[in-house]
Structures are given as C-alpha cells and as structure tokens.
Amino acid sequence: MSEKTIFKRIIDRELPADIVYEDETCMAFKDINPAAPVHILLVPKKEITGADKLTEEDGPMLAHMFIVAAKIAAEQGLKDGYRMITNCGKAAGQTVFHLHFHILGGGKRMPWA
Ligand code: AMP
Fold first, then answer.
1. Measuring from each residue's beta carbon to the nearest atom of ligand 1, which residues come in under 6 Å?
2. pTM for this one?
3. Residue 105's closest CA among 77, 67, 64, 86?
4. How confident is the model at residue 113 (pLDDT cuts 50, 70, 90)?
5. Which of 2, 26, 54, 68 is the most exposed place for a label (fewest CB within 10 A)?
6. Which one of 39, 98, 100, 102 is the catalytic residue?
7. Which atom of ligand 1 is nearest to the CA of 15?
8. 100 catalytic per annotation
9. What pLDDT digit, counting tens, does each position of 2-18 carry?
10. Partners of 103 in the beta sheet?
11. How does residue 112 score in pLDDT terms, banded at 50, 70 and 90?
12. What is the mean pLDDT of residues 87-112?
C-alpha cells in the first residue's frame, strides 16, 4: 500500500492541524505556509490524488465542497470575495497528492496571474 499523504494523516488525526471545518465529506484547515491573510485548505475525505482523477460520481461531493467553501469564506470574513483554486500536477505546483482546494482572500485585490 502506498504511504499516506500529509492530508490523509491530518484527516486521520495522526498529524495536528488548525482545523476550521469538518463533516462526513470534507475537512478544512489553515495552510501552514499562508499565501494570503486567509489561506484555508479544503480537502475531501475521499482519497483522490488530484482534480484529474475526479469522475462523474464525485459531482455531489464537489458541489458540497463549493457550498462548504462559501460558508468557510463567510466565517473567515471574506465578504468581498475569495479565490478557490486547485493545483493539478507537478507543473501546476501541486505538492500534496490528495485533492485540495485553496481558499484565499483577505488581502488587497488579487490580480489574476
Ligand atoms: P499544493 O502546492 O497545491 O499541493 O498545496 C499544498 C499546500 O499544503 C501548500 O500551500 C502547503 O503550504 C500546505 N501544507 C503542507 N503541509 C501542511 C500541513 N502539515 N498543514 C497545513 N498545510 C500544509
């Protein structure tokens, strides 16, 4: 069996994290190296290496995660908006191969790219 990712270990409570949300489907915690005043990682409990491995049956899970993200953003005070991104693959900067969405905001207006 392949080794657990850092995020799977956080989900399994083997590693500490600053958890801001959890339900049966997903967990959210603060990024250890924040790139914005608010930087939360939202991860599904289902083990999927990245966005390129999603299937049609993951649709309800994804919809749920977008709804959760909006709730988290509101709770974190991101009333003017937030960015939600996923890096897919090494060339895009993915370093942890368990699907996750970065929820970023709270600073000045974020230019694209
Ligand atoms: P990515 O580069 O898109 O795969 O994002 C991985 C993110 O996980 C980076 O922003 C890291 O700062 C973050 N990260 C790595 N280890 C931890 C950890 N133990 N707790 C919280 N965030 C982490």
1. 6, 15, 17, 29, 31-33, 41, 87, 93-96
2. 0.96
3. 77
4. low
5. 2
6. 100
7. 19
8. yes
9. 799 999 999 999 999 99
10. 40, 84
11. confident
12. 94
